[in-house]
């Protein structure tokens, strides 16, 4: 009994499963069985009826139709599964392809970066080699400026003092000259704390032990090229911008002609210290040459004989008086004039010079 009960349960489960998966087939088979049953009953009764045949036919048709439908459904499912599988494989293949392309792109970019870095390093190394070659060729020395003393003098970071050669800026330390403080501030702004390159001409030091040098702000490719001198040499910039006058002391004359040329340009433009007069405000190459002072003892004024001494003295006295009334006092610049006339001079004064009257108010060198 137990065995039959178990078999019954198993069969019931199978039937339920079949019914769930193949409902039309089971219904068709049930109808067919019903038709067979009706045919058996009619046979026993000896009755003739088309009903069993019709029922059996309907059942078989339904059962067979369900099989065909299931096959189609199964086929469709298989096709769908296959398509999904193909799509999945295609997506995976595409993802793998994209991944490989991305990896290749990353590798290419990394390789490109490495090549660029290597190229930069090579260029930098080449540039350094060229720089060292030029430094050696022009006898340059790389230094750091520690402190600026005045417009044309400074100390290096190691304590050595340097005096710029070929130029002279107005004084601004123990004594002051016009435009001296401006020149000192200019030099401080351009050099203090900066790395520059020193170049010797002929002399090594002056009487005070200061190094006599040309200062390059950057290494030139041709140290006699005017454009490079204008743009890279600090000595030249001082003259070009009107902060210094050319001041030549042989044998250090390598750039003297350039400095004079730059000074003429600055003077014509009344730039910087040249605005105070055609001779600037300090000593330089353009200062007038000193001439022998005339005196009453000069040969032209001496009496030709002692016998005419009284008449000569009388004539000399008259000439002296006349000369005194028509004399002109000459001063090189406003700095020198103010030593005698601290507040300047008016236009009718013997020391007045139009070039010293910058504001054209008929008063020269006023404060």
UniProtKB/TrEMBL annotation:
Feature: compositional bias, Low complexity: 296-327
Entries under Pfam families matching the protein: Excalibur, SNase
Key words of the record: Membrane, Transmembrane, Transmembrane helix
Transmembrane feature ranges: 7-37
Domain TNase-like per the UniProt entry, residue ranges: 139-276
UniProt region (Disordered), positions on chain: 83-128, 284-327, 339-367
Compositional bias annotation for Basic and acidic residues: 83-104, 111-127, 284-295, 355-367
SMART domains recorded: Excalibur, SNc
Domain of life: Bacteria
Name of this protein: TNase-like domain-containing protein
């Amino acid at each position: 009994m137990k065995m039959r009960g178990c078999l019954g349960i198993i069969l019931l489960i199978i039937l339920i499963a079949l019914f769930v998966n193949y409902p039309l087939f089971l219904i068709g088979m049930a109808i067919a069985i019903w038709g067979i049953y009706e045919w058996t009953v009619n046979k026993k009764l000896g009755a003739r009826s088309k009903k069993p045949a019709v029922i059996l036919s309907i059942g078989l048709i339904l059962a067979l139709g369900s099989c065909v439908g299931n096959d189609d459904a199964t086929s469709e499912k298989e096709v769908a599964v296959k398509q999904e599988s193909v799509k999945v494989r295609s997506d995976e293949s595409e993802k793998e392809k994209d991944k490989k392309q991305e990896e290749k792109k990353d590798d290419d970019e990394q390789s490109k970066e490495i090549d660029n870095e290597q190229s930069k390093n090579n260029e930098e190394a080449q540039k350094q080699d060229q720089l060292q070659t030029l430094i050696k060729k022009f006898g340059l020395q790389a230094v750091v400026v520690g402190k600026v003393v005045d417009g044309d003098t400074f100390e290096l970071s190691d304590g050595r003092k340097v005096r710029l050669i070929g130029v002279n800026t107005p004084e601004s330390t123990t004594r002051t000259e016009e435009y001296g403080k401006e020149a000192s501030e200019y030099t401080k702004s351009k050099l203090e704390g900066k790395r520059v390159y020193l170049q010797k001409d002929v002399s090594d030091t002056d009487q005070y032990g200061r190094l006599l040098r040309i200062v390059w702000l950057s290494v030139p490719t041709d140290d006699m090229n005017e454009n490079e001198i204008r743009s890279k040499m600090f000595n030249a910039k001082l003259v070009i911008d009107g902060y210094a006058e050319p001041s030549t002391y042989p044998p250090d004359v390598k750039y003297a002609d350039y400095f004079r040329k730059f000074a003429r340009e600055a003077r014509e433009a009344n730039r910087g210290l040249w605005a105070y007069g055609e001779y600037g405000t300090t000593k330089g190459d353009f200062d007038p040459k000193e001439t022998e002072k005339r005196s009453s003892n000069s040969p032209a004024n001496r009496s030709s004989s002692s016998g005419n001494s009284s008449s000569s003295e009388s004539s000399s006295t008259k000439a002296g008086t006349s000369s005194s009334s028509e004399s002109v006092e000459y001063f090189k610049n406003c700095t020198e004039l103010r030593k005698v006339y601290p507040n300047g001079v008016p236009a009718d004064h013997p020391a007045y010079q139009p070039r010293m009257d910058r504001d054209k108010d008929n008063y020269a060198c006023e404060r």
